[in-house]
Every structure is written in C-alpha cells, then in structure tokens.
UniProtKB/TrEMBL annotation, chain A:
Residues 7-134 form the NAD(P)-binding domain. This is NAD(P)H-binding protein. InterPro entries: NAD(P)-bd_dom (IPR016040), NAD(P)-bd_dom_sf (IPR036291). Gene3D superfamilies: NAD(P)-binding Rossmann-like Domain. Pfam families: NAD_binding_10 (PF13460). It comes from Brachybacterium halotolerans.
UniProtKB/TrEMBL annotation, chain B:
Its cofactor is FMN. It comes from Brachybacterium halotolerans. It comes from the Bacteria. Residues 38-154 form the Pyridoxamine 5'-phosphate oxidase N-terminal domain. PANTHER family: PYRIDOXINE-5'-PHOSPHATE OXIDASE, PYRIDOXINE-5-PHOSPHATE OXIDASE. This is Pyridoxamine 5'-phosphate oxidase family protein. The keyword Oxidoreductase applies. It holds the Pfam family PNPOx_N. Residues 172-187 have a biased composition (Low complexity). Keywords: Flavoprotein, FMN, Oxidoreductase. SUPFAM superfamilies: FMN-binding split barrel (SSF50475). InterPro entries: Pyridox_Oxase, Pyridox_Oxase_N, Split_barrel_FMN-bd. Residues 172-200 are annotated as: Disordered.
Amino acid sequence: MDIAVLGATGTIGSLVADRLEAAGNDVRRLSRASGVNTETGEGLEAALDGADVVVDATNIATIRATPAVRFFARSANNIAAAAKKGGAGRVVCISIAGVTKPGAALGFGYYRGKCAQERAYRAAPIPTTIIRSAQWFELGEQMVAQASLGPVAVLPQMRMAPLATERAADHIVGEIIATGRGVVPEIVPGQNARLAPEDGEDPRNRIVRLRGPEEMTSAQLVRRILGARGSVAGRSPSLVTEYPYLGRRLAGGVLVPSSEGTIVDDLTLDQWLAA
Amino acid sequence: MTELRDRLRKLPAFPSDLPVLDPDSVPEDPEALFRDWLEEAIASGARQPHAMTFTTVDEAGFPVGRTLILKDIEDGAYQVSTHRTSRKGAQLEQDAKASMIFFWRESGRQVRITGTVIALDDEASQADWASRPSFTGEPNPDWQVYALVPSAFEFMQAREDRQHTRIEYTVQAQADPDAAAPSSAAARTWTHGPVPTPAG
C-alpha cells in the first residue's frame, strides 16, 4: 500500500511510519518540515495525491482551546478534502480515548481541539477510522516537565489506563494494515463500534480503542517512573502530588476506555521501565 | 528615639484572654485546624474573617502581597479568583510559588500557608464568575480561579507574654513509587511540630 503519514516527525507519527515501512508499505513521511501545512492546506493536495490511506498524526503544542480547535478542525477538514480528491480509500485519525465524552474537554483546551478534530472527521466526505488511544507512559515526562517547581510537582489529576507508545503504534499499524484502503473488518457486536449509522454517519467509518493493562493516576504514573529511573525529564521532584485542575471528570476516570472490544495492551508500566 | 517610636511602643499588645494552642492536641491534618480557626473567626463576628494577604513573586524576584478573599477550600487546596491578566495572574504564570497569611487579630491567631498555585479549569472559573454580585449573565473568559496547593502551614497563637505558640506542618515527601500511597492533594500526610527557631 501507499500510505501518507501526516505528522511523521512526531512521537506517534514516526513510530507508525517506521512500522508501516517495515511491513513493506510505501510510506510518505509528511510534516511541516517537508512543506505540508495541514492547517492552511499548503502542499497538502500534492502530498496526498494517489495515496491509498492517509494517516492523521498531526499535533499542535498548546494547552489553550482557541489555537487547538482552530488547528485540529481546519487540519481535519483540509486533510479529508485532499484525501478524497487524491483518491484515498480512507483517513486514519489518531485521537485520545475519552476526550469526546460529555464534559471531558471542559477543563482542558487541548482536548477541545481533539473533539473538534473528531467532529470534523464525522462530517468528512471520506470514510474515517478514528483510533482513540489511552495516554502513553511518556505523558509522565511531559507532566513533570510542565508541572515541576523546584522540589514540588503538582500534576493534573487524571485517572488513566496508560500504555507504551511503541505498543500503541503496533496496534495502530495493525489496524491500518488489516483494514487497508477501507474494507471494514467483520464487526463483532459491541466491539470497535462503528460511528452510529442511524445518525447519518457513514457505516464504513470505524472507531478503535486502545488502553494499557493497569489503571493509575498521574501522580502514581510519575512516582513509579521516578522510582525506577531516579529522575524524569531531568528533574527529580521529592514531592509529587496531583490536583484536579483540568476538571473533575478527568480525575474521575472518563479517560479510561471501558467499551467492550477495547484493545488492552499487555505491557505493564513495570515491564516497560525494566526494558 | 523618635516621637513615633515612643507612641508605637505604648500601643497595647495582646490581651490576657486569648485562646490557647496546645501543641500536643493539634490534629494530624492542618486543614482541620485551619477550618476550626476560620469557623471560630466567622462565628466571632470579626470583619472579613476570610481576608488574607496573598503573596506572589514578581519578575524581579521581589515578594508582592495584597489582601484577597479566600473563596473556597476544595480537595485540600485554597482558592482565590482574579483576572488572568492581572499582575498577580501574570506573576503566577511566571512563578507559581505563593503564600497566604490569615491574621485574626481579635483572637491573636495567624496562619501562613505556603505552596504552589495552579489555575483551575474554565468550568470552575466561570462558575465563580457567575456567582459574583456584579454578574450580568455574560461569561468572562478572563476570569480565573486559582488554587494554592499547600506544602507547609504555620499556625501561630499569640500570648499576652509574647511567648507565642507556633506549630508548623510539612507535607511528607512523596516521590514514593508505591501506587497505594496517597497522591491527591487532599489525601496527603503531614508531619507537625513546634517551630524550632525563636519567635522574635
């Protein structure tokens, strides 16, 4: 297959591109650096023309709603239109588990951006697979880098079921290869639910959910990484605590995928740390 | 000796009928003691018992204090609200370290809370905005509720003889990877004891 990966220099994009290539696909590694701007559409049509599948692994580094919504909504619209025009079978969008649940994005502007992205794909003129992954272990590093103040780290309290990014990439690539240009695999009732067709959605659309084997909170994740490594992101706070400042719903477990058929990766945090 | 100094020295100090702070019978959780003192200040009819000096650090590293009202205590953190674009908002953006000093002069009590300030989510901020007397029905995206997550408390009970009683609480360091260890700000464990340095 000929697969275009947008955001190919990013954390998940590069892992997905590597794996797709290793599996014998032709991969177009696309990014701002390669001259493709998904938000403005610059370079996009030419970059996607003739690809079988388009993977949207784009990202923007912001926590504020306004730039996040603008970026994700515009990018999704532009990508879907360019993918359709270029003859792709479908778009695969990498999203985050739980962010579209009621109220989940109230306290966190970035998640509003991801909601806007999913909404845009629901209305897209081309079949879409949305892969909603739970948080990745590396989130602990980002949190410590952002929330440390001297010896104190007050993390946003989030209950999650994290998994290794590499494993998330394995599952994402598995889905891309299994479904190819757009033949949806057999649907087991309740499993990997399609976007509801009764709402006028295209039944060729599909949602895949990923999570890790254990539930934990932000502080528990960070403490276990600190316990194994001594420092996280170059810091070793002696006081790691958490507070529900990104909203109570995130602290309450809305980010933990609970649907039947969710893919549960089996690599535990301890195994990942020991590797 | 200036004339002012003379007059200042003659001002009355603390009276004899002050409450007593017994270091051996204080609760393990500083929030319980704080709430006791706040409730007693409210019940006493003292003016603005919820007012305190909120100190942040400016861009040059100088402490900057102002009087603010405590809005709520939730999940172990102490809330204030302001415009995000205010000077204190800008200072907190740069440096999240802050302290609150409550002084209830009638009972001779002072509490200092030191910690890290975090910005709460928009939902909490807009709910606070909507509860203000000046609310006209329009949301204010610039309004921000901040919560100070304490890492230390100092409680002082003044005495007539000026041998003031001071108890400090310090949060237990928790880089402990034990998943069962309490992690939320509300569930942390504290150690406490008398302040070892002279009161002055």
